[in-house]
Amino acid sequence: MTGKRKMGLDFGSKTVGVAVSDELGLTAQGIEIIRRTSENKLRRTCARIEALIEEYHVEEIVLGFPKNMNNTIGERAKKTLAFQEMLARRTLLPVVLWDERLTTVEANRTLIEANVRREDRKNYVDKLAAVYILQGYLDSLARKNKDITNLE
């Protein structure tokens, strides 16, 4: 029996970090970084995301939303909203926005603590940021379910 998974995406100007949940929706695992030559070339990126959705039986996408620290929406967040719309249209899946402030900082800190050399960090940071985005979302769902169970 294959369960339905969630996919976490860290959408950057030239990369998209990708993570997927386990079938129970408890943990997030990083699977890859999709790279593109230009910020506006998204066709191959979308095709790869669609292939991963099929391969992992994904039923929901969690897209990191890069709000500014003062909670405003800047240029990067506007591009993320456009990407969210495109993904929803192409995949016909729900695409949830998840506040990703500090996930890249946290990912870098984790890699530094793991003694990953500075020049090698770029090979992991986006994938790890996607894991943090998805894990944050999964944890919030678990807390919500726990709160509901405690009320019954």
Write a concise synopsis of the structure shown:
48% of the residues lie in helices and 23% in strands. The protein is an alpha/beta fold and 152 residues long. Helix 2 links the parallel strand 4 and strand 5.
Radius of gyration: 15 Å
Report the CATH topology name: Nucleotidyltransferase, domain 5
Mean pLDDT: 89
Alpha-beta content class: alpha/beta
Low-confidence stretches: none
The oligomeric state of the chains shown is single chain
Strand order of the largest sheet: 3-2-1-4-5
CATH architecture: 2-Layer Sandwich
Largest pleated sheet = 5 strands, mixed
How many structural domains?
1
What would CATH call the class?
Alpha Beta
Q: Give the termini separation.
A: 30 Å
* Percentage of β-strand residues: 15-25%
Percentage of residues in helical conformation: 40-55%
Number of helices: 5
Order of helices and strands: EEEHEHEHHH
Question: Would you count the extended β strands for me?
Answer: 5
The CATH homology group name: YqgF/RNase H-like domain
In words, what does this structure look like?
The structure is a single chain. This protein has 152 residues and is an alpha/beta fold. The protein has a single domain (5-151), classed as Nucleotidyltransferase, domain 5, CATH 3.30.420.140. 48% of the residues lie in helices and 23% in strands. It is built from 5 helices and 5 strands. A 5-stranded mixed β-sheet has the order 3-2-1-4-5, sandwiched between helices. Strand 2 and strand 3 (28-35) form a beta hairpin. Helix 3 (103-113) packs across helix 5 (125-151). The longest helix has 27 residues, at 125-151. The chain is globular. The mean pLDDT is 89.
